[in-house]
Target: S-type anion channel slah1
Amino acid sequence: MATQGSQSEIEVVVEASTTFTNHNQQTVLSIIILKRLLNTLNSILAKFHAGYFRISLSLGSQVLLWKTLNGPSNDTSILRHVLHILHPTPFLVLWSLALFILVLLSLLYLLKCLFHFNTVKTEFLHNVGVNYLFAPWISWLLLLQSAPFIAPKTLPYLVLWWVFVIPLVLLDVKIYGQWFTKGKRFLSTVANPTSQLSVIGNLVGAQAAAYMGWQETSIFLFSLGIVHYLVLFVTLYQRYSGGIQLPGMLNPVFFLYFAAPSVASLAWESIAGAFDIVSKMLFFLSLFLFTSLVFRPNLFKRSMRRFNVAWWAYSFPLTVLALASTEYAQEVKGSIAHILMLLLLAISVLVLLGLMVFTLFNTKMLLSDNDPIVTLLNHLPRVA
Model:
């Protein structure tokens, strides 16, 4: 009997020891997995920067384009008729995808601000990186204008407009002030194609304010953007020898040359209530700049050798140009205007689809070590 009791005690001790060992192994395994996840997240945050909001800019502008095409119009073209027949589900899916991507990017950048604040400071001081700080707010304003559940003259729209516009104005005060008060940050020395994002932010804010019926506010933002655009446009044309030189991989940002006048034409249409002479002049300017860049493919040859996130800089300008062409075709009602609209729409959609496919098949290259903005930031001294 004593022997049987001893065997039972041994079995209980062995089972308890085994359970305790398994528990320890699970705890150690959980700690290892958690550390790997934290290391992966830290690696992502170290390479992540505001330039990745090019993706949300592209998706947000594409959503606004299709909302405009699906909206009420006196255009009797076949395209408009077909789009009005289609079910709104594809548009809702696209808007939801754009919202998901923007929320994800915003959370990543918020984490970067919390855990890599010195890098964010360095990015703010960089002549290229600082301009992409406008991109998140522009993306949110684009999604706000295309939101299927929020009407322009409601309280949620008003509150969100203020939330997205106030950071834009604060960035304007900081950057525009530096352009004419700081010796080493004069516009002639820091101007580059990405500087036009600051202008685009004001123009998109003006367009969103015009939808609410805030005429004076929209004119204020439009004037702030258009005056600085004229100065910036002349400065970029003159190309001072002391100005910043972009690496070849960032050459897709040259497409922002025709994005700014395209957005300006749309903003002025929202203010004036019609696609009048001013809107047409801005649209023709953007069309000319687009044509000038298309006939210079060698400018983009180096940047197209290997996929990188800078490729997304092609989509947003093409989409807003296509959006301006739809308003122009609706106003003119001519066959040439409609052919131009269909051509730009096709290019815009194909470029976006191509970028999405390339991104899906090259996800490992999204956070590459040779990212041009990361390389530029790494050559700057860290801010204490």
